[in-house]
Amino acid sequence: MFFLGVAVRRSGRANELHGRRLLGFVFNVGLPILIFGALAGVPLAREHALLPVTAVCVSLLGWAAAAFTARRFHLPKTGEGALALCAMSLNISLIYPFAALSLGAGAFAQLVMFDMGHAVMVWTVATVVACKYGGHAGDIPVLLKRTLAAPALWVLFIALSLNVGGAPIPRDFLRSVLQIGQMLVLLVPLAMGLLVSAHGLRRPEVWSAVGLRSGLGALLGCGLAWLFGLKGTAAAIAIVGSAAPIGFTAVVLSAREELDLDLAASAAAISAFLGSIWIPLVLLLI
Q1: Per residue in 135-189, pLDDT tens?
Q2: Measured distance CA(85)–CA(63) in Å, rounded
Q3: Is 130:256 a contact under the CB 8 Å cutoff?
Q4: Rounded to whole angstroms, what are the CA distances from 210 to 34, 77, 164, 176, 267?
Q5: Structural domains present in the chain
Q6: How far is it, in rounded angstroms, from Cα 144 to Cα 150?
Q7: What is the phi-psi region of residue 15: left when phi exceeds 0, alpha when psi lies from -120 to 50, beta otherwise?
Q8: pLDDT tens-digit map of 63-100
Q9: Residues 5, 192 contacting (CB under 8 angstroms)
Q10: Rounded CA separation 196/64 (Å)
Q11: In 10 A of CB 64, how many CB atoms?
């Protein structure tokens, strides 16, 4: 899908504007459908409650590391914001298909638990961070409107409420919703192909974003798993989830807030490509 986007852009049949429109569609339609299908019907176990806490900690620590790195590169606010979103946003959706094939139902449920913490984080704190770097930090009404108007945030709360309340939602329906959401999210790499430039792939801060997300993320996952006393599969899920590639939401939010989209799209493309190699290998070892 990514290379298809590159080919279409080089042929002159589409451009950056079309990529931004695709991201807007995914933000308002695709991601809410994916979140509902992923979280509404999966059994949540109390003994794994530290997994979403781990995801929140990884995102917060990633933001701090990104702010420090941005100052070393002397990036403008838009660049620092894109770098922060790359460090905070996890592409758990890239892990899902491999996990569904190689892990049991219990381990897959633990991965969803981890993703719950990340989803809450990205549609609350990370959205506020994006608005802050986009120049709305001092405009409280605009900040609240942009944060609370995110469809994915409301769908997230609805899905969790239905899950905790034990709503009798047919499993086949949820499975179909999840599959539709996964297909719609594939529009993001297509949009990234329309947005990425050769110059962006050569920028050192782009590779730093990839290193912060997966390299530092893996180290943070190991440290937090030890700190929280996670063992066995739960520890492995925490580490793999913490090292996940850069989430597509970093690209979507960068586009919406007019941050350095070239940085976010290039870093997410590289990160997803590398993740498609290391994720199945690591899950095979698990």
Answers
A1: 665 555 665 666 666 777 788 778 878 877 777 888 888 888 888 887 887 787 7
A2: 7
A3: yes
A4: 24, 19, 35, 32, 6
A5: 2-285 (1.20.1530.20)
A6: 10
A7: beta
A8: 999 999 998 888 888 899 999 999 999 988 778 767 76
A9: yes
A10: 26
A11: 11
- In one-letter notation, the amino acid at residue 44 is L
Per-residue pLDDT tens digits for 189-225:
788 788 776 776 778 888 999 999 999 999 999 999 9
Full DSSP string of 205-246? HHHHHHIIIIIIHHHHHHHHHHHTT--HHHHHHHHHHHTPPB
How far the first Cα of the chain sits from its last, in Å, is: 29
Interhelix angle 261-285/77-88, rounded to 10 degrees, is 20
Closest C-alpha to 114, from 184, 171, 44, 163:
44
Instruction: Indicate the pTM of the whole model.
Output: 0.75
- Token output for 79: 């660049």
Amino acid letter for position 51? L
Nearest to 250 by CA among 199, 195, 169: 195
